[in-house]
Amino acid sequence: MRLIYSILIRAYGLLVRIAALFNGKARQWVQGRRNLLRNLEDALKHIDRSDNPIIWFHVSSLGEFEQGRPVIEAIREKWPEKKILLTFFSPSGYEVRKNYKEADYVCYLPPDTQTNARKFLKIVQPETVFFVKYDFWFNYMKRLHDLNIPLYFISALFRKEQHFFKWYGGWFRLHLGYVTRFFVQNPESVELLKSAGIASVTLTGDTRFDRVYSIAARSAPLPLIEKFCAGKKVFIAGSSWEPDEAVYLPLMKEPGLNMKFIIAPHDTSAARIRFIREHIDQPVVCLSELNEENAGQTDVLIIDSVGILARLYRYATIAFIGGAFGSGLHNIQEPVTFGVPVFFGPGYHKFREARELVALGGAFSITSSGELTEKVLEITGSHHEHERLSTICSDYVAVNRGATEKIMQYLK
Questions:
Q1: CATH number at residue 12
Q2: Residues 83, 119, 28, CA angle at the centre, nearest 5°?
Q3: What's this model's pTM, rounded to 2 decimal places?
Q4: 282 contacts 300 by C-beta, under 8 angstroms
Q5: Are residues 232 and 314 in the same domain?
Q6: Which three-class secondary structure state does DSSP give residue 285?
Q7: pLDDT tens digits along 106-118
Q8: Which of 160, 221, 223, 230 is nearest to 196 (CA)?
Q9: Alpha helices, DSSP H only, in 84-169?
Q10: Which of 141, 187, 311, 339 is the residue whose CA sits 20 to 30 A from 18?
Q11: Residue 64 belongs to domain spanning
Q12: Backbone dihedral angles phi then psi of residue 255, each to the nearest 5 degrees
């Protein structure tokens, strides 16, 4: 089975290289791994591992980075002598966080072949390793086990549909036993792991709640955004895609709504920004164009850069989070932390916080623009109703905080 898995990994790498001829993200994936091992060896060769042991964190992309970040920063504070290596699989994570100051070294992870796992770990020689959520790289896991290097999973999440828990999943389940401890998000994950014979599991919750709470607590005002909002009710569409836009853009035409709109598309390329602007009938300004003169002259602001969205939610009355009309819902924890009721499409059932907030009444799954408009009018038309929903959301975050401290207590 390992041979088949390794062949599939190599085939994936070949397909990405072919795609790199036409696709910019694939090109970044390939270029970022060029001479990777040689460059990493040069960067680490002068480290005395006895005085400065290396802690390796691996994340898939930006969302998983935000889950790992609270633990990275807690370890940095507790053990400042340790060096931190942070690896990414996806360019969308690496390109945004390649200069993250709390990590000593940031790079891509070489593809999960047996050769790469052997070479990479020989160079890094980590004292401890953390993988985030469900980034399972089986050759790396096997090699870490063989070298007796502790491997922890942070904010791990399991579902019964995963191959680990199928009749054919024996080879995959074997690798779960190579993990020193799983820190998992929910009781269902605990039970699923125990059903697979894995007892080294601790229920901690999701570290991302700690991260978004920290963002909210330290969020500084954005004067130009405040001038744009002008004290009005604000609708923020975060990480939206074209199917999401087809649902929420008609809301702008609702007479008497009297709201400001901030649109932060997932894809901030010039072509996507141009497409959105062409589908809005009123004056629009992009964040890159925003200034003291035009901030109060339009009701629609498009965020044409990355890295600011989490700070914008403090100004939201209502948020619409994209992805649930397509491949998967994006992060709803950021707006909820600010007590903002959230809307999203029907594809949310894989996301625990979305399911729980829908059940509590602080989040709403909608399927059409008419349904969205009706609910938005209901919420914005009643101060009492908005306050009730806001309290549900902020209380939900308060209850779910503390995963980082539980992990650190175990590590100590």
A1: 3.40.50.11720
A2: 80
A3: 0.83
A4: yes
A5: yes
A6: strand
A7: 999 999 999 999 9
A8: 160
A9: 91-97, 114-124, 138-146
A10: 141
A11: 2-213+402-411
A12: -65, 140
